[in-house]
């Protein structure tokens, strides 16, 4: 029993040393690595990536307010970031089928790319409904075409009843990994890129 406790303590110390240097907490919600034939489809550095849906429930207790959306290319993957003012909401990230529909209206939404990752964040909005005029907390574009390898387009598809949704068009179905971090609060989606 003492040996097991010692091994656990050593593992915790080693894992703590592998974190970032910005003092933030990190949680990764992923499933296994997807393989095609004998070769893995995930690049080195994107361990745990898969095409399997990823969900995480938040115990935030309030509506997270979106403040920034961005994407950038890295070696072997594209990174998408949703940043929030007051905490990380729950999320569900999965590949969806076309046509992609807007929340509330059900109208079809055009999204560039050969496949679409659907990002549902809850409780989350991009306007502060606790203020009298419900000011926008995210004032950036609702349709982005970042200079990335796999990600073709990112489109806001809804903000309805504390559910915020975005569709991410990618060139094809690639494995992805989802992480959430604090200080600042954000959801990070890494999509494998050729």
Explain the overall architecture:
This protein is mainly beta and 194 residues long. It has a single domain (25-33, 43-192), classed as Immunoglobulin-like. 8% of the residues lie in helices and 44% in strands. The chain contains 1 helix and 16 strands. It has one helix at residues 2-17, and strands at residues 26-29, 35-36, 39-40, 54-56, 64-74, 77-84, 90-96, 100-101, 108-109, 115-122, 124-125, 143-144, 151-160, 163-170, 176-181, 185-192. The protein has a 6-stranded mixed sheet with strand order 1-15-16-6-5-11, with no helix packed on it. Strands 4-7-10-14-13-12 form a 6-stranded antiparallel sheet, with no helix packed on it. A hairpin with a 2-residue loop joins β2 and β3 (39-40). The longest helix is centred in the first third of the chain and has 16 residues, at 2-17. The termini are far apart. Residues 1-41 have low confidence and may be disordered.
């Amino acid at each position: 029993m003492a040996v097991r406790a010692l091994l656990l303590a050593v593992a915790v110390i080693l894992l703590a040393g592998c974190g970032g240097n910005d003092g933030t907490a990190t949680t990764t919600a992923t499933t296994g690595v997807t393989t095609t034939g004998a070769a893995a489809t995930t690049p080195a550095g994107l361990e745990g990536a898969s095409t399997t849906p990823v969900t995480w429930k938040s115990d935030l207790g309030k509506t997270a307010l979106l403040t920034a959306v961005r994407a950038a290319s890295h070696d072997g993957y594209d990174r998408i970031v949703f940043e929030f003012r007051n905490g990380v909401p729950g999320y569900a990230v999965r590949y969806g089928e076309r046509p992609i529909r807007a929340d509330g209206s059900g109208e079809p939404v055009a999204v560039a790319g050969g496949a679409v990752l659907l990002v549902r964040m809850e409780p989350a909005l991009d306007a502060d409904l606790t203020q009298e005029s419900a000011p926008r907390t995210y004032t950036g574009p609702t349709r982005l075409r970042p200079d990335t390898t796999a990600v073709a387009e990112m489109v806001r598809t809804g903000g309805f009843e504390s559910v915020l949704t975005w569709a991410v068009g990618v060139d094809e179905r690639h494995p992805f990994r989802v992480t959430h971090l604090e200080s600042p609060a954000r959801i990070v989606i890494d999509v494998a890129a050729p």
